[in-house]
Amino acid sequence: MLLPSHGHRRPPLPRRRGSSSRRGAHGLTPSPRRAGCLVVLLLALAFVALAAAVLHRASSTARAGHHHREEGDPRTAAPRVTIFSAPLRPPDGSPARQELAVRSWLALPWDVTVVLLGSHPSAHALAGRLGRRVTVEAAVDSSFTGTPFFHSMVARAQAAGSDICVLVDPEIVLLPETVTLLTDLSRISRDWLLVSTSRNISSFPYNLANNAMLEEIQADKRAADSSDRGLIFAWNNPGSPLLEGVVPSFLYGRGAHNRWLAHEVLSSETRFVFDASSLVLGLYPEDFTAKHGAGSSSSGRLPDGSWEYGVNRHLASVYGSYSHRPPGGHHSFSTLYKVVKHSEDYMLSKVQEPTFSRFFIGKEQNAHEEVGSNPWKKENNCLSDHLRSYSSEVYDVPYSLEMLLQFVADQNRSVVLGVAGASYRDMLMSWVCRLRHLGVNNFVVCALDQETYEFSVLQGLPVFRDPLSPKNVSFDDCHFGTQCFKRVTKVKSRIVLEIIRMGYNVLLSDVDVYWFRNPVQFLYSLGPATFAAQSDEHNETGPINMPRRLNSGFYYARSDSATITTMEMVVKHAAKSNSSEQPSFYDVLCGKEGVNRLGDDRCLEPSTNLTVVFLDRDMFPNGAYKGLWERHDLRSACRSLGCFIIHNNWVNGRKKKLRRQMVSGLWDYDPSSRMCLQSWGVASSFAVVE
Known about the structure:
Residues 1-29 are annotated as: Disordered. By secondary structure, the chain is of the alpha/beta class. It has 19 helices and 27 strands.
């Protein structure tokens, strides 16, 4: 039942002439007595043989009793439908409109279920208000600004156990005809994808009370919108591939991804594609195109995130064939059908171009022209070209180190720093995925080269580029002891010094350090004028602060005068050394040959009174301690010891390091899909490239 939003009743919206609240077995599965008429109609409409075969199989299936809709019990034929959506935080989304939309989904027939994607508290609050049919899936990849990744959303929907998945913008109100159409389409035995454009309305003067269903709205009363956010996707058999290849790491709601997906499914010809844009399946209350690039980030602490649109356009231009279709060119899609409604039946009409095809190229060209370039016409679509379009004199693109620190630092002004180059980018992402799983969001990444910087931007990381990093870093020969290693490690201490001078505490963690628990609060509790570092001692007994046993790949440096002065001494010492930075740490903090040692696990730097704590190896084991990496169940062994982390060192070579970590099950990233491994997903096979 519809109730007016102004406190007085309003007449219900008019029904279509001849419509009925109860449908018989019409649509794609005709009754036997109408089979002859349907054949004639198919011939009249020049359906291709493939479409006729599909309809014949669907009809035969219905007559055999599969998914049969019994008279008087329409729920018998109901497919299991799950609606997936990612609520957006203000200013990108409106909580009130999102709740209205979800209520409309719950009002649909057949008791559909709703899964809200994302970890923001507002999603949990919304689910709590709307009952058990609404759940929250927090295990979806997102950027550090909180923007979900579209490819992770699609993957989560693909892992669903329902018959049909629907992926829709969180503010789109779905109408009952959506489920009516999906029920009829569910009888087709082949894989298919339904695409429909929603209708724009300037206002929606109704409240949904007790999940009352919306009345039908005539199609000619509202205009379809050309925004990328206006599309509705639905598909059957979620376990079957949607397209050939992979979905790139589009940022959700930042343009291009919906049109790209529709185009690539058509081009792949792995599914029938049904264009239902002539029907009114969904409404939304304002023009999405007016939102493009408006406002600041959802955090309120970062400037306008319009560069994210550039990231999506870059991905759309280099993945698949979306951007390679010549403007104004004609392309015939063999698996494309238009859904039309005739009386109470849905018909499939073979067409060459989808209703939304004019937006594949033209819409994106207009967006590029707004920023003074058109990368569709370029042979080399570099990410830097797209990002440069959004640069300004005020802000670095995407963000400067200072801005990132302000955004990610925790309540104690502590940040976690990871440093990586191109040879370790997969290990970097496994490290990042593990931190995300633990809810550790106060990290930043220093990229040693432009390739790693651009890769990190595409993966949604809070990354900055160090312009003074050494050039020509070896891909496979930059492990401990090599000249490359010696040059690269000195970057880390210099960056740490820069950050603590800016007033932030730093936990430097090499990306080959696997985290079981978050150690930041424990390390902070050690107090001021304390420098905590991992011990590299491999002997199980005896002192752990012996000469050259301080590991500079995992340490916590506070932003106080004693630590800053000492780190300045370390950086200066390392700059004059032909070795890596690691010996400089020990010689400065503990003195030559350990003359400043205190007991078995400490040192005292005499000029600053900085206390150096060598961390308990049961809680912070190195790669040689107790042979943990050789254990059959490393995770269980570390749980028994109470480990916070374990370092994957004491092994030479990138390939050996990667293999050891993967074999031990301490790996959290799938490089083939560029997604974090999730409990709901099935990781594709990947291995170390020889």
